[in-house]
Design brief:
Blueprint: E1 2-6, E2 9-13, H1 15-37, H2 45-52, H3 58-93, H4 105-120, H5 124-146, E3 147-148, E4 152-153, H6 155-178, H7 182-193, H8 201-220, H9 222-228, H10 232-237, H11 242-264, H12 270-282, H13 289-309, H14 316-340
Antiparallel strand pairs: 1-2, 3-4
Length: 341
């Protein structure tokens, strides 16, 4: 552990974790450049960089900056938000399965979007607002049901109630689709897979603005979050206001997953896998918020790149779903072996 001091401010950092963050940021950036260069009109990585910097020819700059760059930016930001949100909720619940896409928050966001698509018939802005509202209302309901006067919110109770809420919302989502017209049902089913196709600056800019507020807020709470993993009694003895910290982190985590889902749909498994991968890469205990966020960005950018080069075009959510299923099977298998040895 190293410490940097500047005046009255000090910053602790771990060399391995810093190196991992650098590598993950490079992987995410390279994947995004390759995503921008992929398509019916291939563009080499150097030409992509020159076009982004405003030094390419007019046609290349139009393709890069207007047509393809918003998709890559949306993917990077959505992956970052999902990874960070997953790390927050897994730390709060003290459970590797305490991911927002398993405890109902992502499903609630999807419910909001489906109601707008299938019932109210709103446009892109209305779908985004409804998606955010669905995640917020679901999180509020789960938090209030899990709350106990005097005891606050316990992690295990939060996960169990969240899983139950996710099951009920998924059933309601399926009912909405069965009642819809064929065209609307197709649009809703496509949105539910999680996709970056057709994303433009209308999705990327609001997502960037949301992350500009939520990411610094979450990182500032990283230290009390880590101390909270010692247990409520130990954290309170060290001066951490456990319930207030948990409530603020819940707000930040819900905001992150709601913003990401509104921009890219409910992309599965990124929020679940990114924190665990980050912890293994850094070989550090605790939430590892920044590495988890960068892992999420790298995962979604690489998943989007794979989806673009498959023989049959598929949404990025299908790719992350397949990779996430393999990862989950490997995680359960290795955990089982460790438990028996």
């Amino acid at each position: 552990m190293r410490v940097l001091r500047a005046g009255g401010v000090s910053l602790r950092w771990e060399p391995r974790a810093a190196a991992v963050c650098g590598v993950l940021a490079a992987v995410a950036a390279c994947a995004a450049v390759l995503v921008v260069g992929s398509g019916e009109f291939p563009i080499s990585p150097p030409d992509v960089v020159r076009a982004v910097a405003g030094q390419g020819d007019r046609a290349t700059e139009f393709i890069v900056r207007t047509l393809r760059l918003p998709r890559a930016v949306t993917g990077l930001l959505a992956g970052l938000a999902l990874g960070l949100s997953g790390a927050i909720f897994q730390s709060i619940s003290r459970n590797p399965l305490g991911s927002p896409d398993l405890i109902g928050f992502t499903t609630g966001s999807a419910t909001g979007a489906l109601l707008q698509i299938l019932v109210f018939g709103g446009g892109a802005v209305a779908i985004t607002v409804s998606s955010v509202a669905g995640a917020v209302l679901t999180a509020l309901a789960v938090y209030l049901v899990a709350y106990r006067p005097g005891g606050g919110v316990h992690g295990v109770r939060l996960v169990l109630i969240g899983v139950a809420a996710a099951a009920m919302l998924e059933a309601f989502n399926s009912y909405l689709i069965t009642r819809a017209e064929l065209r609307e049902a197709y649009e809703a089913a496509f949105w539910l897979t999680g996709s970056l196709n057709g994303r433009d600056w209308d999705q990327a800019v609001p997502l960037a603005l949301a992350l500009a507020v939520l990411v610094p807020a979450a990182l500032l709470l990283a230290r009390p979050l880590g101390m909270g993993e010692l247990g409520d009694d130990a954290a309170q003895a060290l001066g951490v206001p456990v319930q207030r910290t948990r409530a603020l982190l819940t707000v930040a985590g819900v905001g992150l997953v709601a913003a990401a889902t509104a921009a890219a749909g409910p992309v599965p498994f990124v929020a679940l896998a990114a924190p665990q991968l980050a912890r293994r890469l850094t070989r550090r205990p605790g939430a590892q918020l920044l590495p988890a966020a960068l892992t999420g960005a790298a995962l979604l950018a690489c998943g989007d790149l794979i989806s673009l080069h498959l023989p049959v075009a598929v949404p990025v959510g299908v790719v992350t779903g397949v990779l996430g299923g393999v990862y989950l099977a490997w995680l359960l298998s290795t955990t089982g072996r460790k438990g028996t040895t």
